[in-house]
Amino acid sequence: MNRNTVSQNLFQIKSIFLPILFVGWINALGQSLDGEIGQVTSHEENVLITIDESGSLKIESRISEEVKYFNDNAKLFGEVAVSYPASFADITDMQASTSIPIDKNKYKKIPVTDFKRSDNRSDGVFYDDQKKISFIFPALQAGAITSFSYTQKYFEPRLWGHFLFSSLFPVKKCIYTVSAPTNIKLKYKVFGDDNKQITFRQEQKGKNLVYTWEAHDIDKIIVPQGADGIWHNEPHLIIYVESYTFNGQEHSVLRDVNDLYAWYHGFTKGFEDENNDGLEDLVASIVDGKSTEIEKVEAIYYWVQQNIKYIAFEDGLGGFKPRTANTVFTRRYGDCKDHSVLAHELLKAAGIRSHLVLVSSSLEVSPEFPSLDQFDHMVLYLPDVSGGRFVDCTAKQRNLNTRVPEGLADSHVLILDPESCRLEQIPSVPTTDSAITSERKVSAGNKANQL
């Protein structure tokens, strides 16, 4: 789990039409041109959810998009890549082509024949399982129309469920449908549709319910400098499988925060029973001479910072499942989860209670729509230290006496308290916590010291 990479955030499971990653650059380019470079004339995604003979959910989606270009800057968009996490999804049956104008209302279709599948390493991650399929649209020019489509299969239903209606170009038509049997309960909500452009309808077709969201004339994405990101403002849908019934038995998937905790807790089972006796002598040496609780916390925190390197392995469940404290201590490296778990066990050996905390740095997480792929970072919460303190074991904190470390203010968090798992929003940092005080002596006879 790495808060600096897109792959461990919302795009963890949703494939990406790569140019959308460069929205800021594209907007700057588009603003220097007269008119738009292109328009998404149609974007459609059709999802089919089924239950197989073993009682497991199967989710498969067919994605297609058509873009029309208005000038020769279309050449800037020739290289395309679709990204996906290989442990949780797969992409098949990819097709793409460019249609170039040869006469009035006549086009010549040039299919893409070369698709390359390769690794797609994320920034700030030593290793992960991100893959991509790359290709180049041929003969892009003014008047050209590009189209592509592919099928994506999702292996983990808890990591499915986001759809963005806008794009880097204005969107003429966008349709998202989900077809599922009536014994599958879905939970969904539209965000960012301030102009009420998205319509919804539900109808029954045979044994399935078909949910359809449709939008027309959506403005292109514009991300002002310093803004929180597209998922805060752009129109998008969040949808999850709440539960389903198989052979007369109901199976909960993501009914509420407790289901999310139960799933994540499965990654940490056995940690409580791990023999950490070897860490007790270490803790004793770290806190030797420290009399107050906050002094012990500071000593442990700085020991972890100075002795455990940040190296992220986010392969498969490694993006969610932390390593054990003994493993991290022996290897002397790990990601944010690993730092937090080690510090958690060291604090426990020192008699200080702490909880692991999942952090969402880029989304407003709703308790109604819990999903692990909304979280991209892990920290600790110390409920008994000075009225409660959040501690980020991978970031430099100027002052551990403050309630909130730098960079976490206003973030949404899931506190993994076994007795009361809950979603909260970290409060803003008081200005007094960010103040830096300095003193200077000024002597009228010494110009070098004058302010």
Please, could you describe this protein's structure?
This protein is α+β, with helices and mostly antiparallel strands and 451 residues long. Helices cover 17% and strands 37% of the residues. The chain is built from 8 helices and 25 strands. The strands form 6 sheets. The protein has an 8-stranded mixed beta sheet, with no helix packed on it. Strand 5 and strand 6 (106-111) form a beta hairpin. Helix 4 crosses helix 7 (336-349). The longest helix has 15 residues, at 293-307. It is globular, with a radius of gyration of 25 Å. The two termini are 47 Å apart.
Jot down its keywords:
5-stranded antiparallel beta sheet, 8-stranded mixed beta sheet, 451 residues, single chain, alpha+beta, globular, disordered N terminus
Question: What is this entry, summarized?
Answer:
The chain is of the alpha+beta class and 451 residues long. The chain contains 8 helices and 25 strands.
Protein topology:
Layout: E1 16-17, H1 23-31, E2 38-51, E3 57-69, E4 79-85, E5 89-103, E6 106-111, E7 116-119, E8 127-128, E9 130-136, E10 145-154, E11 162-164, E12 171-181, E13 184-191, E14 198-205, E15 208-218, H2 230-233, E16 236-246, E17 249-252, H3 257-268, H4 277-286, H5 293-307, E18 309-310, E19 313-314, H6 325-331, E20 333-334, H7 336-349, E21 355-360, E22 377-382, E23 389-391, E24 412-415, E25 422-425, H8 431-434
Parallel strand pairs: 2-12, 8-19, 18-20
Antiparallel strand pairs: 1-4, 2-3, 3-10, 4-9, 5-6, 5-10, 7-9, 11-16, 12-15, 13-16, 14-15, 16-17, 21-22, 21-24, 22-23, 24-25
Helix pairs in contact: 4-7, 5-7, 6-7
